[in-house]
Predict the structure.
Amino acid sequence: MTNSDQARLTNNKIFLAGSAGTGKTTLAVDRLRALINSGISGNSILVLAPQRSLLKPYQQLLRRADLPAGEQIDALTIGGLARRSIDLMWPLVAPTAKFARPGQPPTFLTLETAQYYMEKVVEPLRTEKLYFDGVRVPGQR
């Protein structure tokens, strides 16, 4: 593949919309395969999805033995990307941010534990002080 072919493959922006089962993921996996087969460096490719289960088709492709050898391609959730960024920057940020234990890595909450602790903070404000009186969503949200 020529440099102009690689540029055409990587510079095009594609927005897909469609209901479930219309082939959006299949097309995206095919595009990832084309990027890999074109010789584009794996560290130039990031597959990003809102939740882990949506990464499975990409991970299956990336595990295939018939793909050309190269750098590892990251397939992450948005939370995973955030966590990697924090891991990378933590040694620079922690000492100046005045955390109690800057030498220790941060503790990450799952979505479920974050919701649990947020409820403990928000519930008294909602019921006793009526801070969220106009908000009409279920408490767990």
